[in-house]
Amino acid sequence: MADSDLRFRRVLLKLSGEALLGDKEFGIDHEILATYAGEVREAVDAGAEVALVIGGGNIFRGVSPAGSQMSSRAHADYMGMLATMINAMALQDAIEAVGLESRLVSAIDMNEIAEPFIRRRAIRHLEKGRVVIFGAGTGHPYFSTDTAAALRASEIGADVILKGTRVDGVFTADPETDAGARRFGSVYGAEVIQRDLKVMDLTAVTLAKESELPIMVFNMNTPGNLLRVLRGDDVGTLVHWDAAAEPIALA
Fold first, then answer.
1. Count of domains for the chain
2. CB-facing half-sphere around the CA of 78: CA atoms within 13 A
3. I need a labelling partner for 74 at 20 to 30 A (CA). Which of 65, 103, 144, 224 fits?
4. What is this structure's pTM?
């Protein structure tokens, strides 16, 4: 049943590949996949239009100590794009297992397994209630999947970029190592850049700024959090671009 009180209706959810590891050192934890699919199902049932971008760091990282040993950064980045497609296919399977219709869209031609990215077609899929999964990053080396998320969110006219992480938002320090770290309830985007708050990489944040797209950082591993974010509950940290809004709030 659609929820008429959703704060965000068309969303781009960015997930890291590392989030799929669970307790593994490599590969995909299918229980985590099933959990994420259930969260997406709740969001769609509430009336949200959901698109996803997922990284490939659980399989291969183009920018890493291992990746940097390769003679070509571009070659390593293309390998990383292929890793995102493996994760995207696994995510598509999990999403369809909970009864949702989906479309896998690739920035690199892979016609046997995915559609090519066509902006108007992707938007039409969302309007029909299909979950759209964007794979292969931007299709170009030297750009992260964070940047791909900001790019696709801008192209589909998303209301917000949702950055699903394993912590509860953006903090004054690393909450996993500093017990005194405090969560920002909201933060002006310029502060993200000035303080180097590590919300997303600089290219992604700059693109979000140019598109005036807010970014919501929240804990994807807390059951029900995705729907809470869509409803505007006090969950996570909202990165906004309204310089006239209230100053940084600490939760």
1. 1
2. 6
3. 103
4. 0.92
